[in-house]
Every structure is written in structure tokens, then in C-alpha cells.
Amino acid sequence: MTWPVLVFWCVLLWGVFGSWQVLIYLFFASAAFGSLAVVPVEAAGGVNLLPQAVCAGVIILRALLNAQMLRWALAAMLDLRSLGLLMLFLVVSVLVTMFAPRIFAGTVDVVSISGVSAGPQPLAPGSYNFTQALYLCLSVGVVVMFSVLSEHFDFEAVMRRAFLLGGVVLSLSALVAMAADAAGASYLLDPFRTVSYNLFTDVESLGTRRLVGLMPEASSFGGLSLLYATGLAFLYPAYSGRSRGLAAITASALLVMSALSTSSTAYVGLGVCAGLLALNWLRRLRSPSVRWRSSLTTGFIGLTVVATVVLGIILFQPSLSDHVHDMVDLMLFQKSTSESYIERMNWNQTAVDGFLATSGFGVGLGSARASNWFVALLSNTGALGAALMLGFIVQTFARRAPAGHSSRAELLLALKATLLISLVLSALAGTSADFGVGVAALYGLINGFGHDPAPERRTTLVAGY
Q1: Within a domain: residue 60?
Q2: Which of the residues 206, 232, 285, 332 has an alpha carbon 20 to 30 A from that of 9?
Q3: CB of 10 within 8 A of CB of 203?
């Protein structure tokens, strides 16, 4: 057991037997450690249990020990206006996974989650079906729990602090990784890299080392950095005092780090993020009733500084701008000629062929790998499962803050913007139908903040909740 694993378990136990807020903060902060297996892989049956997933499971178990929270969770799960569509999606997904690999065994070629190197193989049941089904159940459980927490408790301030903490930890982890690489002491990060799958931590593009932080590869780090940067950039006006300054610095740093990952997926996400931030600033400028208007001047100053820096680089450091141009050209416009791109497109084509070969029934969770989450969703869960999940996504974006809650309206906008970025990234690099516990928290928070329970049902969480 490495020392980071020991620290994680100590903090987790603190949250289990002490303050409930510790678990929430740990959940968001642990996202940065995507290459840390907190349980020995051999002891876990070959499964890499990451900190955020373990923390999610503990949050679910602890919450369900409370009878009132269990009743609230069941009510939300059975209500089609709340989480009913998501629960139907889970049921359909599990049923397809139970039967499809057996019904269509040997008649459909797929690239399973565990069989990338072998290429397309005949469909057959495997342990990966069970594993992926468990992952999806965990993600859905996170949606339910965060929905209950944000609907029935005073959760807005906790969510803002947790999101800021997650962003700070992620940016610090990247700075530590950069310092270790620059000093030739990358071995110091080995205690944080205990997963059993391949890590791509020393890859270069045009002579520039790709930034991976403590994640397994550059694309996963770049995407995660962009999600936290988007959320903090939108939430920035909601902070006050030193927290506001910290949020601004962290969001800016994470945007830069996302670019330093040199991930083509992150580059596309950065473009979408820039457009969303510009539209949001214009919305706030034109809306007379918007909350936290004092941040508008700061936003204008920030945009002016960024524009000045960019112009200065173009005028006085043309070699740097040329390098940036070459990097964008390589990672975006020449990407379609790379072996990686061709391989990933083959995954998508094989997944679509599997969906068609089963007449839309699907091949089961984990049976077909893709490079597009929507393709994986369609192929793994079938037409019915995909329709239910897409319906839930539409329902999520349609959530509105209760009347008289202008601050919550701003929070919902920030969460929706972050979720939209995650869907864009998933459309470019999502491999399985499971949307992950991090994105699950966004779904749950949006659903919970979009409801307004009776005042007597809203309370403050305590240690023994």
C-alpha cells in the first residue's frame, strides 16, 4: 500500500465516522487521481478501483442507512418527472446485458472493453459485462444521491466549496507533475500510479511533453481540467472574497493546462467552452435582473487582458504563435490521418454494425467499445436504452430553478454548461455506455436544484444524517 492510498483511506474513514461534508469534498478532490488504485488490483479481482468511485460507493451506502433519505431516493427513482427515465434506462441496460451476449453469441463481431488488442471478435459473455453493469449502477446511484442531497438539504454552498476544492487539487497535481518531470524526478509520482492498465505519461507532440498530471493519459487529464475550468468560470461570480480570486486563478490555470495536454478532444472542448463563456458574459451584461452583477466589470477586464496577451504574443513572439498553430494543426486537422484515429473509427463502425446486426436490441454493456459515447450507448444498450437515456438528458437540460431562486438559476446554468462540455468530450472520446460518477454528480445536482421541496423538508445535513 503506497502512502497516497493510506492517506485516502484515512480521509475516507474520517468522512464515514465524522463530518458528512468530508465525503463530498473528497469525492470532488479525488477526481484528480485517475491512475491511483486504492485497493490492490489482485485483491479486487483484476478491477482497478479508483478513489472517486470508492468514495461514491461510500456516499451511497451511508446515505441509504438513513430511512428518510432512502424514502426520498425511492420516490425520485419511481417518478418519471424526476429520475424515472434514468431508472428505466438502467433496467433496460441490465436486461440487454444479461441476454444479448448469449442470444447473439458468435453471430456478431465486437471489440469488447477488454479486447482492444485482439481486434474484432465474435460476441460472447464475459466478466466485462458484469463489471460494466456494476459501474453503470454505481453512476446511477450517484445521480440519485446527489439529487436527494441537493433537493432536500442546504447544499449550494457545499457544492461550490467542493467544486473549488476539486479544481484546486487538480491544478496542484498538474503543477507537481510538471515540476517532477522538469527535475527529472518522475519516479516520485510512482506511488500515485498504481493501476494495472497502460499509462501514457511520457508522450510528446512536436517536442512538447503532453501534460497528464496524475491521470493515466493526456486526453483524460485535458478533459477533466476543462470540466472543472468551465464549472468554476461560470460559478466564479457566486464566490466572494478570497474564494472568488482563487476560483478565477484556478479556472484560468486549468484552461491553460487543458491546452498543455495537447489533446485534440480538449482543443475542441476549449473552443466550445470559449463560446459558452462569451455568450454567458453577454447574457449577464444584457440582463438587468442577473445576480452578482459586480463581476461584469471584472469579466470585461479579464477579457481585455487575455486579448492583449494574445495580441502581444502574435506581434512580439511569432515563433511561439507558430508553434501553437502547428500544434493545433497536428492535433485537429491532421488527426484524421493518424493510426489512432483510424483505429477509433473502426471501433465506432464495429459498434454500429453490432447494433444493426442485433436489429437494435444491443450487444450489452462492455461488449462493444467505441470512440463516441453516443455510439457506445446505442450499441451497448440498444435503441430503447439509448432513447431513455437521451430522454433523461433532455429532461435534465429542461430543469429550471424554482421561482424566486435567482442564485440557484445561476448555479444551474453553470452545471448545465459543464454537463454540455462533458457531452461534447464524450462524443469525441467516450468508450463505454457508462457516463462515470463525475458526470453523474452533475446530473444529480441539476435534477435536485431544479426542484423546490416544502420548507419543512429542507434541512441541514448533520454528521449522522
Answers
A1: no
A2: 232
A3: no
253 domain-assigned: yes
Q: Read off the C-alpha cell for 146.
A: 446527489
User: What b/e readout covers 1-28, taking b as 16+ CB neighbours within 10 angstroms?
Assistant: eeebbeebeebbeebeeeebebbbbbbb
Is residue 58, in this structure, part of any structural domain at all?
no
Q: Which domain holds residue 437?
A: 69-177+203-457
Separation between Cα atoms, residue 283 and residue 279, nearest integer Å: 6
- Report the candidate in 341, 378, 32 with the shortest Cα–Cα distance to residue 192: 32
Whether the model clears a pTM of 0.70, i.e. scores above it, the answer is: yes
**pLDDT of res. 363:** 95
Structure-block grid coordinates of residue 288: 438587468
- In this prediction, residues 229-252 reach a mean pLDDT of 88
pLDDT at 70 over 80: yes
| pLDDT, tens digit, 9 for 90 and up, residues 102-155 | 999 989 999 888 765 567 889 999 888 999 999 999 999 999 999 999 988 888
| pLDDT at residue 313 greater than cutoff 60 | no
The answer to whether 36 touches 51, Cβ cutoff 8 Å, is: yes
Mean pLDDT of the region 66-86: 93
Domain count along the chain: 1
How far from the centroid of its chain's Cα atoms is residue 212's Cα? 16
**Cell 437540460, residue located:** 397
Place of cell 431562486: 405
Helix (H) or strand (E) holding 75: helix 67-77
